[in-house]
Structure formats: structure tokens, C-alpha cells
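re the bet — no i am not wrong, look at it urself. input seq straight from the record:
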Amino acid sequence: MALPASIIKELREKSGAGMMDCKKALIETDGNMEKAIDWLRKQGLSAVAKKSGRVAAEGLIGVSINNNSGALIEVNSETDFVARNELFQNFVKTCSTLVLSSKNDIDALQNLPFPNSDKTVNQQLINNIATIGENMNIRRVEFLEVSEGILVSYVHNNVADGLGRLGVIVALESKAKKQDLLETGKQVAMHIAATSPKSVNIEDLDQDIVERERQVLIDQAMSSGKPKQIAEKMVQGRMNKFYQEVVLSEQVSVVDGETKIKDLVKKLSSDINHDVKIKDFKILKLGEGIEVGESNFAAEVAATAGI
């Protein structure tokens, strides 16, 4: 049956359930609002919806690599206690392997069948929310592949294999044997985890970021009394320093503290007599960018107790 968007929106506002769940509820109940709310309650979705407004900034990053394809996923929960929960860990690890097929599409991932169950990924997530009792969500996914070469991962603060608070995958493109690339790949992956570069090479860097930095440096020079033409000349040297801070190939390796990453790769190419190139990398940090408000625990307890 055809449903106007307004009635779906109304049910979503009343129940707090997801848009697709609201649509399904209205279809199942011939568009009857009250029956649709009851239908959602029976599915446990209303109880889940009550948790959906709570901030989820903890959880886990999951990493999976299969041959030349790699995936990262961030699944959030409200507390770090959930990261130790076996049910939650299994969910994150399973989802990270599913991203290998759904790639960068979260919607596609959520609609995939969850292995060894009669549920989709989204339905399993809802079930986990109801079972564990915390708000959770699949926040971000990253997919990376390389036609020739190797993918290497690094997980920081790992709680289990392929699960932690930060995940990195780096792609080294080369015709060389994978074992010849592995050690350098690991070193670069660890370096990326420590420095969070914004691009592999200078030419790959977002031009908006470049122009914004350039303008800030020009304004700083002019505010110190330098004429504009002098300020613009001064900026080039300062931009080189900026590139060394944010561009992977220009950064000095944190592992040895002296070799630029591009020179590290160049030396590897010479040592194994094969061209090696850092094709790309992906990094996810748990909770990055999520605003978490401070709460007064004593006040919350008092409010709950009606004091």
C-alpha cells in the first residue's frame, strides 16, 4: 500500500523507531497509527527507541582483511563495559567481515542477512540493544582494496583479534612477494595510527584544507606588519612544514624518528628490486567527533529516585 511520508514521519516521532520500521509497521496494520505503535512495541522496537537518544561514544573498531580487500567498522555503545561483552564483540567482528561485500554502504550492510540467524544486521543490532540494554549504532565503515600488493592492518588498544579502539589499514601496491612488503607495511600502519595523516601525497590533499591553511598563514604574516607580497612568499616555507605534519609521504616515521615515509618506501623498493607505492590508507578512531556532555551522576540518581 502507498503511504504518505507525513504519516510515516508522525509514527517515527511518536515511537522513536527507525523510518523503515515505521513504514513496515504501518503496512502491517493498514495505516492505523495506534495499531502500528502496538506492532512496534511487540517487536521490541519502542523499547529500543527509548535508548536511541542516549549518546553512544564508546564501543569498538573492527578490522577485517581477506586477500586484497580490507574493511573497518565503528560500532558505538554507551559505555566501555560493552566492549568487553562477548555478544557485542562477535557482532562487531562479524559486521567487519560483512563490510568486505557491502563496502562503503552502511544501508546495504544493515540489510544483509546476519550469519547463523534469521535476522538482518539491523535486526540483530536491535536485538542486541534490547538484550544488553544500551544504545548502540553502526556509525562508520571504510573499505579498501588493492589489485597487486598487500593490505596490512594495525589495531590499537585491542581487546580481541581485530577489535580495538583504533584501526588502520594501509595498501602497498607492488608486484613483489607479500612477505617482502609485510614488515614495512606494519611500520607504516603503526605510524598512521600515531599521526592520523590526511592524505598519502601532497597532490591528494583536499584543496580546501590547503587553501584554508595558506590563507591563515598569510593573514598571520600580514598581521605582524609584512606587506601582502612578502607574506605570500613567506608562506611557501611554512606550507612545506604544514605538509610534513599532515601528508603521510612527507612525515618522519615515528618508528625510527628520522626517515621520511616516502624514503622508507623508496628504500624498500631498492632492497627488493620492485616498485612499491602506498596506494591508500583508512583509519577509524573510536568516538572521534562525537560530542559527549558532562553529566552529574548524583543529580541523575536523585532525579531517578524522585528526591
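see?? Strands lie at 58-66, 69-77, 136-145, 149-156, 163-164, 166-174, 276-285. told u. also Confidence is low (pLDDT under 50) at residues 295-307. so pay up
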